[in-house]
Amino acid sequence: AQSVAQPEDQVNVAEGNPLTVKCTYSVSGNPYLFWYVQYPNRGLQFLLKYITGDNLVKGSYGFEAEFNKSQTSFHLKKPSALVSDSALYFCAVRERDETSGTYKYIFGTGTRLKVLA
Amino acid sequence: DSGVTQTPKHLITATGQRVTLRCSPRSGDLSVYWYQQSLDQGLQFLIQYYNGEERAKGNILERFSAQQFPDLHSELNLSSLELGDSALYFCASSVAGLLDEQFFGPGTRLTVL
After folding, report:
1. Fewer C-beta within 10 Å: chain B N or C terminus?
2. Does B103 sit within 8 Å of A107, measured CB to CB?
3. How confident is the model at residue A3 (pLDDT cuts 50, 70, 90)?
């Protein structure tokens, strides 16, 4: 099973509207989850992470994400979208490699967010 | 600017050749990570080094190898290059491990002809 899934290739939202970018995970043990954003021709930038504690995590640029254990989800949200939020968003999870016993990062396939003026 | 530098920015080479990509982490960061981003395979974690030692391994091919030097810079060596190795290669660094925020470099775009 895929460790982390982003079911939507693209999300379109009008400027000023709330946005949600979906992510679901499937890992054994405690999930450690991350969101990154990639602007055109740039490297990734960290937005936020969930390690433990409060299920609502606040991050950079007004983004937040809600960890939901029962639904195994970690959706990224923002109350009011900006045109400048248009970018590629990646969900990631730290996963344990059962063979080697080491940890590695698994990224989702990415969701392209387009905010329309 | 993330503070992570990568050289070169672009690299064009032929199949069968070998190339070396270089990464300098942010000052104070002990971990370095390498990623490959391609259209067909998305973003793949390759390998992590922490303070000179290999710490985690992802989908890194046997033709690829990496190392982290005492000054903490890292090199990714790609050999016997194939057309499918054409991709954007990112380096990232963090203070310590995989639970830390990673800071990404601008990437090296490799084109294999």
Report:
1. N
2. no
3. confident
